[in-house]
Design a protein that fits this description.
By secondary structure, this protein is an all-beta fold. Helix content is 0%, strand content 47%. The chain has no helices and five strands. It has a five-stranded antiparallel sheet, with no helix packed on it. Strand 1 and strand 2 form a beta hairpin.
């Protein structure tokens, strides 16, 4: 996933929320995504762990074209 891609994010106790990627930071343990949500337009950081499916919080929005 890259800048400006539309994504969904997993948040505590609620349905997945839609947003847009504002920044991407890669680490050896995974990738941090700064995602703009309607409630937080300046963005919230979400971390996707590479070694755990439970640690995947950001996913591409189904049906949206993703840039390479």
């Amino acid at each position: 996933m890259k800048l400006h891609n539309r994504v969904t994010v997993k948040t505590d106790g609620g349905p997945r929320r839609e947003g847009t990627i504002l920044a991407v930071e890669e680490f050896s343990e995974g990738v941090m995504y700064l995602v703009s949500l309607d409630d937080y337009p300046t963005g919230i950081w979400f971390f996707n762990e590479v070694s755990s499916s439970d640690g995947i919080f950001v996913e591409p929005l189904v049906g949206e074209a993703q840039t390479k």
